[in-house]
Amino acid sequence: MSEAKPEQADRSRRGKSRVAATLRALLRTRIMAGLLVVLPIYVTIWLLLVLFRLMRDSSQWVVLALLDNKWFQGHVWKLDIEGGQTLDVDRLLTEHPVLDWGIAVVSVLLTIIILYAIGVFAANIFGRRIIDLFESFLGKVPLVKTVYRALKQIMATFAGEQSQSFQRVALIPFPQEKMRSVGFITAIFNDSVTGEELAAVFIPTTPNPTTGYLQILKRKELVELDWSVEDAVSTIMSGGILRPDFLTIVPGIQRAAELPETKQPELSPPPDDEP
Hints:
Elements: H1 4-67, H2 70-75, H3 89-95, H4 98-123, H5 125-138, H6 144-159, E1 168-172, E2 181-190, E3 197-204, E4 212-218, E5 223-225, H7 229-237
Antiparallel strand pairs: 1-2, 1-5, 2-3, 3-4
Helix pairs in contact: 1-4, 4-5
C-alpha cells in the first residue's frame, strides 16, 4: 500500500501538468487569434486618427481665431458686442464638448478646401510663376534645396504622371545572383554608351517598405510581375506570408495562362497477340 501511494501521486502530478500545458496552449492560441482580428483594425483606426488630427491641426487655429474675433462674433454670430456681450470660446468648448468635434470636422474640411485652392492657384500661369520664384529662392539655400528637391521628386513620382512607371513590380537578383527580391521599377532608360535598356529599381526592406536600396541593372535581368503595388507592399510587410497565388522566377511569364502546354507522352499501341 505504501508503494501504491507514490505511484498515484506521480500519475496525478503528470495528469495535472498535461492539463495545465493544454490550457496554456489553448489560451495562447485563442489570444493570438484575437490579436490577428483586432490588431489590423486597431492599426487602421490609429492611422486614420493620425491623418485626421494632422488635417485638423493644420486649420483649427484659423477656426478658433475666427470664433474669437469680435467682428466675426458681431456680424456672423449676431452678438451684442457694443453691449459687452462676447463669446467666450474656451468656456463654450468646456461646457459643450460636442462642439469640439464639430470644430475639428470644420477644420478638416477647411484644410481640404485650402489644399484645393492651392492646387487651383498652382495650375494657372500667375501661380506657377510665384511658385517658381519661391523654388528659386529655396534653391539658393544650402541643405534646404537638397531636401526640397528630393521630396518634390518623390511626391511627383507618387502623385504625378510618373506614377505609371512606379506601378510595375519585378523580381531582382539581389543581394546575390541566386536570390530574388521584390522591387519597384521607377524608371526605364538606355545606357549612354551601349544603348542597352536599363532599369532603376527601388528595393524596399521588410517589414518597413519606406527604406531600401536603389539598383541600376539591365532590364532583361528582371522578372517583371503582373502584381499591383498593393500586392507587393502586402508581400513585403508580411514577410511573404501574404502574396499572390501565382509567383514564378521564370522570365517572360506573368500569369498561369502563359505557361507552356506540357505534351503528354504518346502511348504506344499494345502489341498484337501472336497466334
